[in-house]
Amino acid sequence: MPLNDNTYHTPVLLEESMQLLDIKPDGTYCDLTFGGGGHSRRILEHLGPKGRLFSFDQDRDTLKNAPDDERFCYVESNFRFLRGALRLRGVEQVDGILADLGVSSHHFDATHRGFSFRGEGPLDMRMNQRGGRTAADVVNTYESEALGRLLKEYGELDTTWKIASCIVRAREQQPILTTAQLVEAVKPCTPKRDESKFLTKLFQALRIEVNGEMEALKMALEQSLKVLKPGGRLVVISYHSLEDRLVKNFMRSGNFAGKVESDFFGRTVTPFEVITRKVVVPSDEEVARNSRSRSAKMRAAEKIQ
Q: What residue spans of 47-194 are helical by DSSP H?
């Protein structure tokens, strides 16, 4: 029995994302982050009998949310394998790609998955629980310098060498295996005024590292150039500045540095036309309904060639 998508995860910028996708009834589309299925269900509502939707998710838990619809195909895979997964299913190009890069409310609320510091659970944070390193592996085995570097890069935290030192000292006494133990380990470095913000960034950094999120996003964006048809739309909802910067630069220039190339005649050469000249953010009403949408930023572009 499919879960109600609002109990699993409330889809962010739902109507705005559908408008930017500009869905053709007989088109083929990808939802790279299926989750609770909110965006996918709305895409299906816009599709006609000949339309097709391929929805990706590496977390097998989300399969229970899959709609019973012959136009729908659930792809149990990380979206970093976008092109290969589509080709396995006989699809070379699509009319639109949507990615909501946020973590589902379900993951934050499921304490046994270890994504949140609110409540004690195993320090796991894997989206794909069938293998790979956990957050506990990172916290207990990374050298202090490596820990500090990832906390700086992915958490955008200050004085990360202090935080890394706190973690190393704590793990020398006993392994850090739960979310509560990690919170306790960094207590000497935790600012009392912004404790929640600090811990959110700390857990975010570890989650990004565990799941290789930045590398996966880069791979998916690069593959979108080959997968999208001319005139196809790419719509991405991001939640922190690292993701948003990558998306913005890529849509603007086709590369992650944001460097726009010119041809022999000085004409700008870019694979996309940016549709969202100004980033789209949730309305005050949406934020009031769903506080987790507060940091969302959506950008869209159309493939030129």
A: 82-88, 105-109, 135-141, 144-155, 160-173, 179-185
**Which pTM was predicted?**
0.90
* CA–CA separation, 213 and 208 (whole Å): 5
Q: Measured in Å, how far apart are the chain's first and last C-alpha atoms?
A: 42
Closest by CA to 191, choosing from 237, 164, 158, 169, is: 158
Domains recognised in the chain with CATH numbers: 5-105+213-303 (3.40.50.150), 121-211 (1.10.150.170)
Using CA atoms, how far apart are residues 155 and 148, in angstroms rounded to an integer?
A: 10
Q: What is the dihedral of CA 221, 225, 226, 232, to 10 degrees?
A: 110
Question: 23-40: b or e for each residue (b if 16 or more CB lie within 10 Å)?
Answer: bbeebbbbbbbbbbbbbb
Contact (Cβ atoms closer than 8 angstroms) between residue 85 and residue 97: no
CA distance 156 to 176: 22
pLDDT at 36 over 70: yes
The mean pLDDT value of the chain amounts to 91
